[in-house]
Model the fold of this input.
Amino acid sequence: MTSSLLQSTIEREAAILAPYAQASHQSRGRKHPESTVSYRGAFQRDRDRIVHTSAFRRLNGKMQVFTGDMGDYHRTRLTHTHEVASLARTVGRALRLNEDLVEALALFHDIGHPPFGHAGEDALDECLATFGGFSHNQYALVIAEQLEGRYPSFPGLNLTYEVLEGQKTRIDKSAAASQAEGPLLEVQVVEAADSMTYDAHDSDDAMKLGLVTIDDLLSCTLVKEAMATVKSNYTGANRDVIRKAVVHELLYRQVTDLLETTSQRLAELQPKSAAEARRMGILIQPSQELSEKKKELEAFLYQRVYRHPKLVVVRSLAQERLRVMFHGFLERVELLPERYRMRATEVGLERSVGDYLAGMTDRYCDQQFHQLFASA
Ligand code: MG
Done:
């Protein structure tokens, strides 16, 4: 193959991206400048860097909502991440946004989750309350900028400004919303995809695990409508097939609504660049009507699934273990890996212990608890 047959990222993006997409060559760059190649754009590089981190691999052992001892059907933090990336790419591509940036942001969005999901996050936040607290969104930046080392000359992944900025908007959503400029459209696509994904798959997992039935979920308008479509398309299908078809329909309805609503907005305002789309405050959101139905479903999931007695027990046990481990490592610093003892001299012992615990998978966390602190 001669080099003239190779398409550069600039040529490819010029041919397919909308004017309001964030082009790779217009990235504000990286903290530590690096050489570039014509066939691989900056965001494609970020995406690959994220996938190659140990923090990304460990998402496989971190719970989304349900823990490993509840079976092996449900989503883990890693499979959730892939579902978000897949949905976000569909939306990003249909809107002619930068799919590489969308994918990098999606694969990165939950990388900072500690063991045991939001329960683990709350426990660490409490332990670190007088030291600045803990948030998984903030921790993702610590992973990207400090903990993951790939290069001898500087710490971190040296991700592009856009990926880091996108993650920063997740840290304080109300602060981000009050900014004069909205987030990049690619950032908003990932946010929307995250919400569409967990509404659908938490419903699916909860039904499969028997925490709620499909009849319970029919009290939510969005599920009721999805069920009506499924029933008119399939007759005589078994409950398992019906459940999957309803979940598929939940996603389809949300994505279609989001694309119709957003493409209409973009057609009306016609932003000429990514910067102009931000200044215009264009929002990638579903229609008002669908937002209401999503809220209803989310309220149901909150009450009936996330606060289900089975989950409450698992969560409080996990939180208690994390607390014991946090205080245990503070008292017995010699048990910390050398790397985190060294890190304590830079960021303080409490923060370093928090960073160490946050990086653990659920199973490793349990294992370390039993090995080091169970009899304490
Ligand atoms: Mg997520």
